[in-house]
Amino acid sequence: MSNTSTPSNTSTSKSAVGKLTLRPVDAQADAELLHRWVTDPKAAFWLMQDAKLQDVEREYMSIAAHEHHDAFLGLHDGIPAFLMERYDPRYVELVGLYEPEPGDIGMHFLTAPSDVRVPGFTRAVITAVMESLFADPSVNRVVVEPDVGNKAVHALNEAVGFVPEREIDKPEKKALLSFCTRAQFEAATGRTTAA
Fold first, then answer.
1. Could you give the 3-state DSSP secondary structure of residue 15?
2. Which of 135, 180, 136, 129 lies closest to 154 in space, CA to CA?
3. 87-134, pLDDT tens digit by residue?
């Protein structure tokens, strides 16, 4: 995986809530926006509550420079609304914690804090994120490791086809290791991917 693999520049998905587009994070230009998002109380599971602006900029510059980790800003009808990170679990996040299979890709996602509730928005976001990951024909399975206490994300993951395997101890949290194959995603969502 490299920073030029799918989605390289942008990825667009039509959903019930509008057009969802992904583009690579610009660490310097997007740092202030991302800082607001990751330090918001609603983003507690992102584990950056005490981050300073320069910490966020440094983190996303590091991701941009990493051969096996990418970050994408999600736009909802052209307005920044979510964040997605994609990583190769053989080298990032899960090294030594499970046995990776060929075609595994790791993912994190975060919706922006908002006082306006859009019914179905977060589910549309995770569906678009998964579609963008499976748009790469080399991806067979998506791996996630959310905090065991993040019940809202467990329900969203299940809605798009993730199956929990087991709890694992990461340095920063106790996580629920879960997997979603292309077939599981398609069965759960009724979407067809481009494999």
1. strand
2. 180
3. 999 999 999 999 999 999 999 999 999 888 888 999 999 999 999 999
Nearest of 176, 175, 177, 195 to residue 185 by alpha carbon: 195
Q: Are 195 and 142 in contact, with CB atoms under 8 Å apart?
A: no
Per-residue pLDDT of 151-163, as tens digits, reads 999 999 999 999 9
Residue 117 corresponds to which amino acid?
R
Q: In whole angstroms, how far apart are CA 165 and each of 55, 62, 99, 156, 181?
A: 33, 30, 12, 16, 13
The model's pTM: 0.89
